[in-house]
Amino acid sequence: MPILDIINKIEYSKEDLLELLSISSKDDLELLKKTAYEIMKQYVGEKVYLRGLIEFSNYCVNDCFYCGIRKSNRDLPRFILSKNEILDSALWCAQKGYGSVVLQSGERNDEAFVDFVEECVRDIKKITISDSLPNGLGITLCVGELSYAQYKRLYDAGAHRYLLRIETTNRKLFEQIHPNNQSYDKRIECLHMLKEIGYYVGTGVMIGLPKQTIEDLVNDLVFFKELDVDMIGMGPYLMHLSTPMKEHKDYFFDNQKEIYKLSLKMIGVARLYLKDVNIAATTALQAMYPWGREEGLLFGANIIMPNLTPMDARKNYELYNGKPCLDEFQGDCFKCITTRIESTGRQVALNEWGDSLHYISRKRQEL
Ligand code: SF4
């Protein structure tokens, strides 16, 4: 069937998703991009919402085989930002008009850590209330797997979004890229807990993992729909040479172009399929190609997460090699990011949370 006929369908089957992700001609790719952009315009509008990213700690109790800050990477200097450093970054973010902040770190589930995050969340809320942001910054957390009680405490403190990536919904592949003590079922359980508590829930996958198939990516999209998530943060798989996955480096270096293209297709197809969710154009796209994030916006993404982490810490939060923005000063970031976004013809939303409209409609349906 011609791609146009598939794109124009109201509902997509798995076979349709497979066809769309398998697009190879330039014309079909352009068609996907244009249609995904139109769907985005229709369902979530053209504005791009900013989430200032603070990578506040690279301590992690886990050992994911693909990750540069895994606990077994013993050469890496470890850091945790002080509360004041985090608050300074958050205040800068609010004053610039970013609207929202993301607190991201390696995973720790000890009470001292959760106490610290809870305090930061409370204080960020307090200090960022202003005429422009009457409810303070919107706060997204991305700190991994915690208990129900811990998630609830952080929600009650004022965080209202949570990003927890499943990384792949192929259970076998998940097990191949994680040690035995990290379980697929636990990750799913956490996602359900977050939804039950009331968070806007985001998840995502790595695209182009060794041994991952297009069918796997189709199943990832179906998983997003079935879990009824509000936000998607997915991007190309990127290699870190100090991890066990370095054994796949030939595969990675030989296929970078394809992985990049597949990542853009995933954004476009996710937009067609899921319609009103928030989709991030992730920094990993920029790591592959200097204008990768902007391309992601043209394929239907509506969220950008500019990095606000102080430079010294940022260098030690290298999840993958080739992380961009390691030589700019924080003061220039705002200008850089707005210029880049505006170059795509999109408007940057200032002082707006830009919450997922999907959450609002799913809550309405629950009533
Ligand atoms: S991916 Fe997350 S949980 Fe896994 S090692 Fe890296 S920081 Fe830790």
Could you give the topology of this structure?
Blueprint: H1 3-7, H2 14-21, H3 26-43, E1 48-57, H4 83-96, E2 99-105, H5 111-127, E3 138-142, H6 148-157, E4 161-163, H7 171-176, H8 184-197, E5 200-203, E6 206-207, H9 214-227, E7 231-232, E8 235-236, H10 249-274, E9 278-279, H11 283-288, H12 292-298, E10 303-304, H13 311-315, H14 330-342, E11 348-349, H15 357-366
Parallel strand pairs: 1-2, 1-10, 1-11, 2-3, 3-4, 4-5, 5-7, 6-8, 7-9
Helix pairs in contact: 2-9, 3-10, 4-5, 5-6, 6-8, 9-10
Iron/sulfur cluster binds next to loops.
How would you describe this protein?
- The chain has a single domain (25-366), classed as Alpha-Beta Barrel (TIM Barrel), CATH 3.20.20.
- Helix content is 47%, strand content 11%.
- It contains 15 helices and 11 strands.
- The strands form 2 sheets. Strands 1, 2, 3, 4, 5, 7, 9, 10 and 11 form a 9-stranded parallel beta sheet that branches.
- α6 (148-157) links the parallel β3 and β4 (161-163).
- α3 (26-43) crosses α10 (249-274), α4 runs parallel beside α5 and α6 (148-157) packs parallel to α8 (184-197).
- It is globular.
- 47% of the residues are buried.
- Iron/sulfur cluster binds next to loops.
Key phrases:
single chain, 15 helices, TIM Barrel, binds iron/sulfur cluster, alpha/beta, 11 strands, about 375 residues
What is the top-level CATH class?
Alpha Beta
Average pLDDT confidence is 94
Uncertain regions spanning at least 5 consecutive residues: none
Distance between the termini: 40 Å
Biggest sheet features: 9 strands, parallel
